[in-house]
């Protein structure tokens, strides 16, 4: 089968790989019909995630058709079209029981933080991803959800990660009616967080990025205020000025580690590495928040964060929350929001590219070419 394959930093290509097989009675084999490239894949692509091995296949945002099932899978049948959450979750461990499906212990017992994730290096369990023709889906009774008849496949694939992550970013912010919400990052996650902030009652939603075309999209899609932080120079000062010196009630970091590398370099004069815990957007989020406010972090970081202004956070009495989105927990309500037209996820997809052209697809998404917001890879049918 054809599969995206990592060959080293910023080098990916399509390769012929063996078909995945049922390895456990609770496995399913899914024929992939759509797989997105995510900002999280860029951390891998740029070589910034430890233990990303040459030869791995990325891809944690995919939908497809069930081709084969292990003997213990009772919730699915061959031929079902399924949304597969990016978290691999056993459904039974102490964390899954609390609906913390992103922190499943059994799917990634080596790690103390994250659970298993499809196609996300050996720090997330070493599972192959779905940017391929076929993929093995473990714990198939737990994660996959059959796509409703009425749902467009482009909406379905956005429910594997972007919609739940944007929604959870807003949810973790604990937004109260009328709150001012500042969001750092106008990638798919930041834009979706802006859209969802209104659902929680925000009174004002402000998004920062450096890409004007993404800010324009965010303004149209999520009816938010947008600012290019390069023209502003100092978004923290701006947030103070625009809130009578108080700061934002809620700040959301939808950027993560190395995405802000060049900004960070101008501040610290040294190269940023995910392992070193670079954190420009997080610094801005903490420093822009009101006393007693909440900072919600969905941007992905390495294990340490030595540039986090923890003193400011403590002295302001901030609450900092973060996690991988718990996709399974959120899917029922988000499917309703798509059904009722409250959220239109597919509008965010700007590029549909054949899987065979995966190298171009990564370059376009990574370099933000051609107005790219979200890219979907389409395997040959
Ligand atoms: P993306 O790379 O498409 O978007 C990031 C955006 O941030 C870009 O538009 C970039 O120009 C902008 N940016 C860079 N530095 C900035 C700064 N200092 N301030 C404001 N904006 C800045 O990525 P995405 O797909 O939107 O994902 C965003 C983050 O969310 C990534 O770190 C990704 O790994 C993470 N993520 C987390 C989860 C989760 O479950 N927690 C799920 C999906 C993605
Ligand atoms: Zn993702």
UniProtKB/TrEMBL annotation:
CDD domains: FDH_like_1 (cd08283). SUPFAM superfamilies: GroES-like, NAD(P)-binding Rossmann-fold domains. Residues 25-144 form the Alcohol dehydrogenase-like N-terminal domain. Keywords: Metal-binding, Oxidoreductase, Zinc. The keyword Ligase does not apply. Residues 188-270 form the Alcohol dehydrogenase-like C-terminal domain. Pfam families: ADH_N (PF08240), ADH_zinc_N (PF00107). PROSITE patterns: ADH_ZINC (PS00059). Belongs to the zinc-containing alcohol dehydrogenase family. This is Glutathione-dependent formaldehyde dehydrogenase. It comes from Pontibacter oryzae. The lineage of its organism: Bacteria, Pseudomonadati, Bacteroidota, Cytophagia, Cytophagales.
């Amino acid at each position: 089968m054809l599969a995206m394959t990592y060959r080293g930093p910023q080098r990916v290509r399509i390769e012929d790989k063996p078909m995945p097989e049922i390895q456990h009675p609770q496995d399913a084999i899914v024929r992939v019909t759509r797989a997105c490239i995510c900002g999280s894949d860029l951390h891998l692509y740029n070589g910034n995630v430890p233990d990303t091995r040459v030869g791995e296949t990325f891809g944690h945002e995919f939908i497809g058709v069930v081709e084969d099932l292990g003997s213990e899978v009772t919730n699915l049948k061959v031929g079902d079209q399924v949304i597969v959450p990016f978290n691999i979750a056993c459904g039974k461990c102490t964390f899954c029981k609390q609906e913390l499906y992103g922190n499943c212990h059994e799917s990634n017992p080596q790690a103390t933080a994250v659970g298993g994730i499809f196609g996300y290096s050996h720090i997330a369990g070493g599972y192959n991803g779905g940017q391929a023709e076929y993929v093995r889906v473990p714990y198939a009774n737990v994660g996959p959800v059959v796509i409703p008849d009425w749902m467009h496949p482009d909406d379905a694939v956005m429910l594997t990660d972007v919609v739940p992550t944007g929604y959870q970013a807003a949810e973790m912010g604990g937004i109260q009616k009328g709150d001012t919400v500042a969001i750092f990052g106008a990638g798919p996650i930041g834009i979706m967080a802006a859209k969802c902030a209104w659902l929680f009652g925000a009174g004002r939603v402000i998004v920062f990025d450096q890409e004007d075309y993404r800010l324009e999209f965010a303004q149209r899609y999520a009816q938010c205020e947008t600012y290019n932080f390069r023209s502003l120079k100092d978004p923290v000062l701006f947030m103070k000025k625009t809130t009578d010196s108080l700061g934002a009630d809620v700040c959301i970091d939808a950027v993560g580690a190395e995405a802000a590398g060049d900004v960070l370099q101008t501040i610290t004069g040294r190269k940023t590495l995910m392992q070193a815990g670079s954190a420009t957007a997080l610094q801005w989020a903490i420093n822009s928040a009101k006393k007693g406010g909440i900072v919600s972090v969905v941007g992905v970081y390495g294990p340490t964060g030595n540039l986090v202004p923890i003193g400011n956070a403590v002295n302001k009495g901030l609450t900092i929350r973060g996690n991988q989105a718990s996709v399974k927990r959120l899917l029922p309500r988000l499917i309703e929001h798509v059904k009722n037209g409250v959220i239109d996820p597919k509008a965010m997809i700007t590029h549909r590219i054949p899987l065979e052209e995966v190298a171009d697809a990564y370059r376009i998404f990574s370099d933000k070419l051609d107005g790219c917001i979200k890219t979907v890879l389409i395997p040959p049918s």
